[in-house]
Amino acid sequence: MSTSTITPRPTLDPDWTPSVYGCNRKGDFWSWNFRAQNDQRTVLGGPSQTTNCLPSTWDPSQAYAGTQCPTGYTSACLSTESAMPTTTVCCPTVYAFSCVDNASKNPHGPWFPCMSQYDTSTKRRVTVTDFAANTIDFTDVNQATNLHLFAMGISHTSPTATDPADSDATPSPSGTSEPSSSSSISAGAAAGIGVGSAAGVMLIALLGWFFLLRRKKAESNAPPVADYPVQIGDTKDMPRNAQPQELYGEAARELPG
After folding, report:
1. Residue 159 CB-density burial (10 A; 0-12 exposed, 13-18 middle, 19+ buried)
2. Around 162, how many Cα atoms within 13 Å sit in the side-chain half-sphere?
3. Cα(30)–Cα(150) distance, rounded to whole angstroms?
4. How far is 192 from 194, CA to CA, in rounded Å?
5. pTM above 0.70, yes or no
6. Number of C-alpha atoms within 13 angstroms, CB side, residue 152?
7. In whole numbers, what is the pLDDT of the chain averaged over residues?
8. What's in the keyword line of the UniProt record (predicted)?
């Protein structure tokens, strides 16, 4: 049986920061010259940033597995060239960068997915690195408003449930079948359940008859209730401060003999 090896996409620690101080400084403009057509750009930072200012696992053709840009970078756009449309391109925050359209059409284009157009025209001194001659020099260039500054970016892709790089391989089924977690009821157990149910119904009926008999007996011993309500007339209170008086009658006398 053949097995396939799945290489997971690298992850980037959210707390990652460049290993040296001074990365992505404002005004640190370099001219990267590869001595090829459409392969010379003014870039933020020099070639040393590939080892000093980017993660050690950085690859211009690959995105990290993650959900946010690292410190010092901000989301510029969603990449339109990746097979996964949720790939986010993170660019340095020192300038207002946007994404290069179809960056891979030019040599080394994936290295520089971030682009910012100059808003003013001025003369600027830049550091020129010639990769063919392996030299570094300085020159003055005219910075026009129709030109752009490029920058290296960091891309990340939000992991999804269908991403093969973030999911384990599906195990193949084995020859033996696992016992089912649900168990069936045997005929004897079913018969026992039926007898128990019938006995329970009879017990409930007997209890109901017993309580009904007690209720009738209690009603027969209760005191009779008058058929008509008894009306109570108006009553008057005796005066509390009345003085005692003698009864009216004749004086005592002898009876005739």
Report:
1. middle
2. 2
3. 10
4. 5
5. no
6. 23
7. 73
8. Membrane, Transmembrane, Transmembrane helix
178-198 confidence digits (pLDDT tens): 444 444 444 444 445 454 555
Three-state helix/strand/coil letters over 114-157: EEEECCCCEEEEEEEEECCCCEEEEEEEEECCCCEEEECCEEEE
Q: Are 81 and 104 in contact (CB under 8 A)?
A: yes
pLDDT digits 0-9 by tens, 139-169: 999 999 999 999 999 999 876 544 444 444 4
CA 173 to chain CA mean position, Å: 34
In whole angstroms, what is the distance from residue 250 CA to residue 257 CA? 20
The Cα–Cα gap between 111 and 155 comes to 11
Q: For residue 234, give the 3-state DSSP assignment.
A: coil
* Cα dihedral 215→220→226→232 (10° resolution): -70
Please state, in angstroms and rounded to a whole number, the distance separating the CA atoms of residues 124 and 88: 32
What's the number of CA atoms in the CB half-sphere (13 Å) around residue 229?
3
Per residue in 20-48, pLDDT tens? 888 999 999 999 999 988 899 999 999 99
* 116 within 8 A of 24, measured Cβ to Cβ: no
From CA 94, how far away is CA 25, in angstroms rounded? 7
φ, ψ for residue 19, nearest 5 deg: -80, -15
Alpha carbon of residue 136 to chain centroid:
50
Write phi, then psi, for 220 (nearest 5 degrees): -70, -30
Structure tokens that stand for 130 in this block: 């010639």
